[in-house]
Design a protein that fits this description.
5-stranded antiparallel β-sheet, SH3 type barrels, 29% helix, 321 residues, binds biotinyl-5-AMP, Arc Repressor Mutant, subunit A
């Protein structure tokens, strides 16, 4: 721990009672001026620290942002080993890819409070203003590349379960959108490299809208976006920890037993069940039209059409009038 972190932990431990600058200085073996500087640096990171004559410093609130140290202390121990970043970046998926290529181990996570080049699937943009959380995790599943399609669904399920642990009631739009009240609250982007028969690494990127962007200078919220804070009172570090725990749990079940073990949970949250849909392939060509009935054990969407039950591997779903 750095001296700044020791100061922070002392503030946390002292709670509402607070701790005096002199006590901190003595226990750390530094001057009171040095303590004041660390407090200033923590305030610059977004920690709200009160200073009252007599009672000293009091930690009033931690930043409402995905700082690695605030997320790490809320995580279930075990799976996520390295958390980095936490401020602005281009794209956490890009950052995580660089780490994965350099050999980062499974369980490494890059976090950001905003992205300047956030990306969705197929070259689309992911609006990433302050108030959301953006993170990408390095996974190294020992499976053939074809199985990664269902990992995207497993991750979406893990996010839904994480949101439920906070009191929200999300639904899933196949393949990997997470909805709240009909709007998109989170999106998932998987990128990977693989040999012919084995995945080398997968970067799982998740963007979640927490607070509605309020500032005039923020970019327009994406049309159709939903915001978690509209229905659930949770701070960003808490949200990120819940989603990471949800993803770790779903991923662990997926690696142990495959998507088949998650199918029931996925289907029970499927927003499009028994709804008339049109599914286009990633090339834009219509693959199936009919009633969405669920997903199969490989995560393919089952569409009951005039030709019978058509399983669709990848694509975009639109509702039919
Ligand atoms: C996704 O793509 O939903 C995947 C989004 C993944 C974003 C994360 S953030 C961390 C990591 N780093 C990255 O650079 N990316 C990942 P797709 O299914 O293609 O949906 C994209 C579409 O969603 C856009 O074309 C918009 O219509 C809509 N959209 C964009 N920003 C949104 C937002 N913040 N909230 C809701 N919808 C949004």
């Amino acid at each position: 721990m750095t001296t700044r972190e020791v100061v922070l932990e002392a503030l946390r431990a002292s709670g509402a009672a607070g701790v005096s600058g002199q006590t901190l200085a003595t226990s750390l073996g530094v001057s009171r001026v040095a303590v004041g500087k660390h407090v200033g640096a923590l305030r610059a990171e977004g920690y709200e620290i009160g200073a009252l004559p007599g009672s000293g410093y009091t930690l009033l609130s931690v930043p409402d942002a995905p700082l690695p140290r605030e997320v790490a202390r809320l995580l279930r121990p075990g799976f996520w080993t390295h958390l980095v970043g936490g401020k602005e970046t281009g794209s956490t998926n890009e950052d995580a890819r660089v780490l994965a290529r350099a050999g980062a181990e499974e369980g490494t996570v890059v976090l950001a409070s905003r992205q300047t080049a956030g990306r969705g699937r197929l070259g689309r943009t992911w609006e990433s203003p302050d108030g959301g959380a953006y993170f990408s995790a390095v996974l190294r599943p020992s499976v053939p590349p074809a199985e990664i399609a269902s990992l995207a669904l497993a991750v979406a399920l893990g996010i839904a379960e994480g949101l439920e642990s906070l009191g929200a009631t999300p639904t899933l739009k196949w393949p990997n959108d997470v909805l709240l009240g009909g709007g998109k609250v989170a999106g998932v982007l998987l990128e990977m490299t693989a040999e012919a028969d084995r995945v080398d690494w997968v970067v799982v990127g998740v963007g979640v809208n927490v607070r509605r962007p309020a500032d005039q200078d923020e970019r327009e919220p994406a049309p159709g976006a939903a915001y978690l804070r509209d229905s659930v009172d949770a701070r960003v570090p808490e949200v990120v920890a819940a989603l990471l725990d949800g993803v770790a749990s779903a991923y662990t079940r997926w690696t142990a037993s495959g998507f088949a073990a998650l199918r029931g949970g996925y289907e029970s949250r499927l927003a499009l069940r028994d709804v008339a849909v049109r599914v286009s392939g990633l090339d834009g060509v219509v693959r199936a039209e009919g009633m969405a009935r669920g997903v199969d054990a490989d995560g393919r969407l089952l569409v009951e059409s005039e030709q019978g039950m058509v399983p669709v591997v990848a694509g975009e779903v639109t509702l039919r009038a």
